[in-house]
Fold Fructose-1,6-bisphosphatase, cytosolic.
Amino acid sequence: HSADAYRTDLMTITRFVLNEQSKHPESRGDFTILLSHIVLGCKFVCTAVNKAGLAKLIGLAGETNIQGEEQKKLDVLSNEVFIKALVSSGRTCILVSEEDEDAIIVEPSKRGKYCVVFDPLDGSSNIDCGVSIGTIFGIYTLADVREPTVEDVLLPGKKMVAAGYCMYGSSCTLVLSTGAGVNGFTLDPSLGEFILTLPDIKIPKKGKIYSVNEGNAKNWDGPTAAYVEKCKFPEDGSSPKSLRYIGSMVADVHRTLLYGGIFLYPGDKKNPNGKLRVLYEVFPMSFLMEQAGGQSFTGKERALDLVPTKLHERSPIFLGSYDDVEEIKALYAAEG
Ligand code: AHM
Ligand code: MG
């Protein structure tokens, strides 16, 4: 029977989240609506990243489009897409984007209880050469949405109600946690739906890969330098770890989540707080790591305990397999 070749009972991301939310009697579908707008943003950006419709838009030889406009830069386009999708959901009150200096306070008529922090297109150095890039997002619920202010989003990561990322790679993969484990969904382009393909992701307890920009080694502090040295020259008779570094946080974290190991963006003498942003890079990824059974550490504390003092604050970050992060924690503790 030809129908046997098809899976007919599809677990789409919407169905999955609806199931999850139905466990909370107070839920009225607001989260599901918010998420479906985020999903729309991801699909749009995926299409743009894949250059679908390229010929129609700008002509094959890369001319400007029919209106005579230059194509918008992908990161600018992605930011616009997410802001419009989030505001029109009617479920958000404050948005914080990596692309915008100030928080966006949603107009009163379109306000809802959620606050979304996001990096619409992360991995800027990889955009123009076709290497995997992604969108990262985190979601908070605000107690009072009448007069939202910037201070309302300066919350520790452990207060997030959900976090996720979408990776625009060899396939388009959305990884999500609403605080009850981590699940991955792959976009089926023919259906335009994200289908559950990675149920209940658990990171291996220990990994064989480390991921860091070694070009910064000259400026590293003692514990980071000692840790990376141990990865290459282990003293306990184990095999050295492999190095993998893409330079797109989404892709490096996705690999870490699936294969295990550790991802580091440490602080150093030049940049004591490292590079990555607390609200929309460090927090969502730390939330996912913990939900998958791993850990995330700033060099001082559990990453999700950090309380940011400004929107675009940065922090060093060490995240991944439980045992691997334990090792770096021990090195920082020994330093005192
Ligand atoms: P971006 O926001 O300019 O894209 O920078 C963030 C990216 C992360 O995706 C990645 O982990 C990191 O920067 C790589 O930085 P580096 O090039 O210094 O190794
Ligand atoms: Mg970024």
